[in-house]
Amino acid sequence: MLRLSLLTVALTLALATPALADSIAYVQGGNVFLATPDGARKVQVTSTGIYSSVSQADDGTMVALAPGERLHKLSRDGKVLADFLTPISDGAPTAGPVNKFHGPFNPQISPDGTKVAYEYFNDSYESAPGCSETTVPPCVAYKLSKGTLVSNTDGFTPFDTYGLLSGWIWPTWLDNQTLLRSDPAGILNDDAVINQLGGPIDRWFYDNNQGLGVISMELSRDLTNVIGIAGFSDEKLRVYRATMSPFGAPDWDHTPFTNKVNVPTAQQCWELTGAKYLSTSMAPTGKAFAYGTADGVYTTAIPDNCAPGGPGTLVLPGAKSPDWGPADVPTATPAQPTQPTQPTRPGASKPKLKLAKRKGGFSATLTTGAAGKATLKVTPGGKKKSVTIGKSGKVTVTFKAKRGTRVTVKATFGGQTVSAKLRA
To answer: Residue 296 sits in which domain range?
Structure first.
């Protein structure tokens, strides 16, 4: 940690007083919590122990990452308002050279609560000179790519709704239509870029005193203060002061030995060291921020005029994934949520069930149009099978039955039930 004079410490503590209505959403022990920025009042929102990260909108609505590559939209009292898959939710990893998405990760809800941005990674395998499926031995060239996608928070949203934002991850919202992203996919790139949804990339920020780039960057709502994690092992947390508007700022020329005089878009004010920094979250005022380490979540102030600050206070020991928002902590203990049994797509058509005779019994083909889990029950006999449906949105299950038996099959998927009858 930085060694500070008593005067600096006193200044930091004075500036660290948070707005009374603010809250920090975070995850601990797999559950979502809300706390005042000083950590004095905490409320447990969920009790299922399934969540790994969370973010909150200005009205307090939250989105959390759930198992099975699903996102949950949560109310302030823990109710699951929406439970949905994303276009990259393609199931468990498959062995071998198979093109595969990983994600979603780090979901970040927009200020108005209508959209969520999240990270993805993609493994792809391609032919290369002297390396293909026909060479001896057969081989493929591996490529890892990454980027950001955006979904609506009421359900499944296709790729092409907001477009594929490749190259940079760690999304944060500047407003309801504009994203700041950091941590580029390749070398000789800006550390952070700005995207209006549906628009081109606006290259914004580069720190030439970095060490493997700057990640987890956030810009205050008044576009003045900037924070980010740097260093070879994420061992530096830097605070900057913007020197110009981020919109339309001059591009940095990354050409080696360039003669161009590059103009920095932000000035480094101070940095924290002495820990591995995991994440950051700017306060709505832009005058303070939260950050995560292995110890938990700290909050600290950002002094005016680029004056040096300090490490602040460990306010939430053992917590992770902090997100500082303007909504207050609920006064009452939230009700325990009832989890939906199945992710659904808004406006999805009703599943279709078709039965067909086969030797020794019959088959049941369920078409859902979406991935997920379904249950099929046969009468008479009460035979029941649970199945996982892949991204094809279709599955066929076989059952044994005596010839001539009249059977009825009921299939349940996403809260909807369909049935079909057959004489085996």
So the answer is: 6-325
